[in-house]
Here is the input.
Amino acid sequence: MNTKINKINDIISKFNIENVLTDSRSLINAERSIFFALKTATNDGHLYIKELQAQGVKAFVVARIPDGIDADGSEFVIVEDVLAALQELAADRRNNLPDSTKFIAVAGFGGKTIIKEWLSEALGRQYRTARSPRSYNSQLGVALSLMKIQSEAEMAVIECGISQSGEMERLEKMVHPEMVIISGIDSEKGDFASLDEKIEQTLLLAREAKVIVYPAELDDAVSRFVPERVLKISVNIPPDADWIERDRLLTSEALRYLKVELPQEIVRPLETRLNVSQGVNNCLIISDRFSCHSDSLPSALDFMRRRKSEGLKMTLILDELKGEEYTEEIDALIDNAGIERVIAIGKDFKTGEEMLEALSLSDFSREMILAKGERGGAVDRLAETLQLRHHETVLEVNLDSVIYNFNHYRAMLRPETGMVAMVKASGYGAGAFELARTLQSHGAAYLAVAVVDEGEELRRAGITMPIMALNPKVTNYDSLFANRLEPEVFSFDMLDEIIREGEKRGIMAYPIHVKFDTGMHRLGFLRENISDLCIRLKETDVVKVESVFSHLATADCLDMDDYTFGQLKLFTDICEEMYRGLGYRFKRHILNSAGIARFPEYQFDMVRLGIGLYGVDTLGIPETSGLKQVSSLRSIIISLKDWPSGTSIGYSRRTILSHDATVATVPVGYADGLDRHLGNGKGKVWINGKECPIVGNICMDACMIDVTGADAKVGDSVEFFGPNLPVDFMSDALGTIPYEILTSVSPRVKRVYFRE
Here is the structure.
């Protein structure tokens, strides 16, 4: 065996390691954690070693020991590739489990997690069964899943996902499964050279297996790419089968081979999302409807812990664990996560109904509540009751998309360039608090708000990272200074006022951000002001220039680059003159979302990411393709009626039906932010895979939709903008910009934040 792996195993034994840590923010038990310093396209784990040492971590696997790190008292294993070392360690862990432990791998494109969970639950009724947590199916996730398997396990079900050639070979070496289940392979080649390569790479997982279960549409590929000695179980799936039926048939065939039945009560859709919403009595509710097993608890607790806010007590409401006892180990896990209050069915209450009878809204106040229980159960019902707004219309905010877009732009930058994330206007309508928490935990250098009040609210919500207040007209300097909000300064009057107010309070070297007008012609000092500005700044010790910045007027106008380059040249010259005039260095930033993609050579020290963070591509160039829309406005159908051709719909009879139609009523109106100009066929919504026009005038609290041919039912979901209807479809229809659409969604619309 590799001597490096031997050394890592020796360290694990020496320190009684229980936690393999790859993200410094997930640290719980420092003394029993080993940190693998992974380097990715957007971050480098080596940057966090010193911080982890200070918190008590003693064991590290690294590609190098960074400068300034004291190696005394810590154990370092230096390897060529940190991820490869973790994968090799995971393979070693798997190979050292008893021969009696049977490994089952689930792969494919769509449905993997459902099949893995159904298999695990069915097998768990007869065998001690381990599984991948949630959707841990990546190169890293599979390794972490294997590291968690205990020697007592009789069955292990591991989910395996790939996105490009070469990945499955590494997963197969780690998992080395006896049984492989393929959920299906779609017709998109993705990042593979061809669809054939995608299929071949997926089927590599079965090259050493004993049996493979797969949909019959893959018969030809399986015969070509899977060795003859492997038992092939082909499953006929009706062409009209939905994903639930498809997954049920594949799972049933796999279990039939294992001589285990699939209990019908476990065949249900799987909720993989963690939802966050405001609750009653100043509570924050995190709903986790993923299957209630202890192995899915750590990731939920980690998600909660990263959102910890001052003044909110951490509370866990836990459903009865499936097939498990509530143990001391679970108590220790909860305690290490900082949970202050636990309400557990099976421990504090015998049944869910007993819990619901005993608790009321008044029992919860100023708490961050993680409610973990399956959809429709007692814990889920309690979480629904605790939510502040009960409204069919919601703005769903995908925090995974926020992270994806943030990293998409960060990959365009030098590692040392800071990202200023724009969360003004309540996070472009999405709500600033959850976005700020997410960005704080993913390495943004600054948050930027428009006014002091927005920054003050973020501080009250527990945000500790630097915050710029752009375009402020400060009337409450006590709040500005107390909350350490760093103001934009764009005029001498404003500068003098900040200095005067700072002198009254004995403030020294307070950070400010000086704005220059290089062509936007909105706010900012001019180049001819530099000499007087530097003199004024050198006369005071109340403030210190943290950054100098400007704003591009035409970065997203592909035919106006001459103007943009003129701004960039002027800004460069201004910064040089400011350096000479002040005699010290400061940060510089001018690029917005479009500028990051188009002019990366001018990234200076920081960039400001605004509309691109929210997944809106204003350019349509390769660098910005693939952004993920963050916000989705959804509601439901509350009424359906059939009307003959010639019927008028809505106020003022502005729509006269030209055909026999089915018309749905949806509880979204102009009071929710739906522009009235979208009525009478101008706007469309997405229902059951079909674009359906809005008919009639939009009302204050409702609108009508022509759903003819959409097979619509009361209760069906209606998407106004989201993954199927990008927000720019609506802005184009109105002749405006996506910014206006996003920021116009009414505060009365409930915001629901989620991560997969």
